[in-house]
Amino acid sequence: MDNCLFCKIVEGSIPSNKVYEDERVLVFHDIQPAAPVHVLIIPKKHIASMNDLASEDLALISEMHRIAQETAKQLGVADSGYRLINNCGPDSGQAVAHLHYHLIGGSKLGALVQSSDSHAL
């Protein structure tokens, strides 16, 4: 996509602070971190959102989750805990229309949902 910020990062026309890269996935530090550790995990293939995944993309998503585990270990948050977040669509806060996960950790994170039943969403 010509106007996609993340596609420009993948092609190298916009610089990023890379943590991991292979032929299908790129991990880089968020420029506006929400926690001491905040990286983005993106497919190099342009997929606008989780809603746009095709069946042939499921292996890629699995690979991104494996890379998230490795990245959490590399950045020292695997044992203390981290969040892996995917926003899908404008009401969720998805600011860039390119599928991505936020891996956030490095400090005690606040609750996302307040509930008297900790298992209820």
From TrEMBL:
Motif span (Histidine triad motif)? 98-102
Catalytic residues as annotated in Swiss-Prot or TrEMBL: 100 (tele-amp-histidine intermediate)
A matching Pfam family: DcpS_C
Under the heading InterPro entries, the entry gives:
Histidine_triad_HIT (IPR001310), HIT-like (IPR011146), HIT-like_sf (IPR036265)
Q: Which residues form the HIT domain?
A: 5-114
* Origin: domain of life: Bacteria
Q: Name one GO molecular function term.
A: catalytic activity
Record's signal peptide: none
Q: What is this protein called?
A: Histidine triad nucleotide-binding protein
Q: Which organism is it from?
A: Paenibacillus mellifer
Ranked from the top, the taxonomy reads: Bacteria, Bacillati, Bacillota, Bacilli, Bacillales
